[in-house]
Amino acid sequence: MSAASCLLTKDQFLCSICLDVFTDPVTTPCGHNFCKTCITKHWDKNVPCQCPYCKTTFNTRPELRVNTFISEMAAQFRQSAQQKASSSSSEQQVSKPGEVPCDVCTGTKLKALKSCLVCLASYCETHLEPHLTKSGLKRHQLIDPVENLEDRMCTKHDKLLELFCKTNQMCVCMICSILDHKTHDVVPLKKEYEEKKAELGKRDAEIQQMIQKGQLKIEEMKRSVELSKKDADREIAAAVQVFTAMKESVERSQAELIDTIKEKQRQTEKQAEGFIKELEQDISELEKRSSEVEQISQSEDHLHFLQIFPSLNAAPPTKDWTGVSVCPPSYEGTVVRAVNQLEETLSKQMKEAELKWVQQYAVDVTLDPDTAHPKLILSDDGKQVKHVDVKKILPNNPFETCTCVFAKQSFSSGRFYYEVQVKEKTEWDLGVARESINRKGKITLSPQNGYWTICLRNENEHKACARPAVNLSLKCRPEKVGVFVDYEEGLVSFYDVDAAALIYSFTGCCFTQKLYPYFNPCLNNGGKNSAPLIISPVNNIE
After folding, report:
1. 3.40.50.300, 3.40.605.10, 3.30.40.10, 3.40.920.10: which CATH number matches 1-88?
2. What are the residues whose beta carbons fall under 8 Å from the beta carbon of 56, sequence distance 6 or more?
3. Which of 25, 31, 169, 446 is the most core-located residue (most Cβ within 10 A)?
């Protein structure tokens, strides 16, 4: 028997239902062999009885008896297979918790490599071999190992769930598609899988895009924090510098006030010391005379007494101290005057600090010849502009009636600052304007029309061009004007650079467009206003 078994192959002793070596093999009337338990369960589920191998149908359920010969041969093969499996189990991975075990292995369960959707079983490397070599099993659909393969069977018809009903969004078997879902949109699982996978891929792409946007937003926020920290450090440094200067000014004013008071006290003391010294000398002379008088008065020498009497009877030469006195110095108003002077110093320092702060946002501005009125002359470097009586032929985009010009540079965020020399001019306009302002026809300067400017008229009339206009009372006529804009804050401020004084501020502005620096040298007025507007380099005050 052992010699004969060596001539047989293992495939001859495998049940085509469980794909393992026969256990209690029985033979059907058509001559095919199966495990008694396997064929019995198969016929319990499938009526009428049919051979799983050749599909022969039996009108009545055949009586099955164990095939003794095949049973003995199968026992030998099973023993041999168990020995072989035992020797190779050390090479194959034993199933661990969470991993899918082989359904065929007895005893130690090995890790399954594949699951069969037809057999509804999972197989290790050894028990997977028939599916890879046997022609009938090669057509079975293998997938990566999964648990609960019975969940892939229709609970109603005990058939494989191989279709998808789009109408009800559920997996169905072939019988379901014919009966319960006959009028529904039913497609193969693979087709729906591919569509859903493509949809999921699209969704994942959207998610990745959202992740990228989120990461970019994080980077933007980090940059904002870094910029904010730099601004904070800069502001702290500037504040420390300003407050240190103020502290030094206060301490210096205090020291000067104390020195002034002490000096007055020293002068009073010195005067009093001089008077006291002089008066003490007079008293000394009087005491000396008194001593002489007393001494001669006790003399009994009549002749000597009468001879010396004239010189002792006259008072010694001393100063008349009747109107002499030491008056304490008056300190009234000393502290008030010192405080007022200190306030002026601090106010000046604050103005200088404010101007120095805005000057750090200085930008390089040049005039744009394409926006200049035909009667304006621009310097080659784009830094000067003045009005002349000769009109040039220019493109159709400059200002037609207003003698003004834009800068080439525009700003739509942040802060910027520039300075313009207005020395020797009798009229001018300066400020910023939004991109969409009307350049044709009459222009009225006001924030409502997109202009934030100040102007000089009739040599000394300074105005903020608002609606209505605001008259500006200035101590002196500025020779250099600084223009500062904080786009996000909605602020436009003008400064007298030389006096380090704020001229005027437009506040609460709402900017939604690009802003351009705006310049108008005004008409030359027969030469009276021929001086140019000059964009000057910014020199930070010290």
Report:
1. 3.30.40.10
2. 28, 29, 30, 50
3. 25
pLDDT tens for 479-491 read 999 999 999 999 9
Judge contact between 482 and 418, C-beta under 8 A.
yes
Q: Quickly tell me which residue has 């009234």 as its tokens.
A: 332
* HSE, side-chain direction, 13 A CA sphere, residue 311: 7
Cβ count within 10 A of residue 518: 24
Q: Is the pLDDT of residue 20 over 90?
A: no
Cα(299)–Cα(288) distance, integer angstroms: 17
Give Cβ neighbours of residue 253 (< 8 Å, ≥ 6 apart): 338, 339, 341, 342, 345
CATH architecture of 369-536: Sandwich (2.60)
Q: What is the pLDDT of residues 121-168, one digit of tens each?
A: 899 988 998 898 888 888 888 888 888 887 888 888 888 888 999 999
Q: Which amino acid is at 330?
A: S
Whole-prediction pTM: 0.53
- Distance between CA 460 and CA 326 in Å, rounded? 55
Report helix angle 302-313 to 189-297, nearest 10: 150
Q: Is 223 helix (H, G, I), strand (E, B) or coil?
A: helix
C-alpha to C-alpha distance for 49 and 58, rounded to whole angstroms: 6
Q: Which residue has the tokens 């192959």?
A: 9
Q: At what angle do helices 125-133 and 68-88 cross, to 10 degrees?
A: 120
- Separation between Cα atoms, residue 140 and residue 115, nearest integer Å: 10
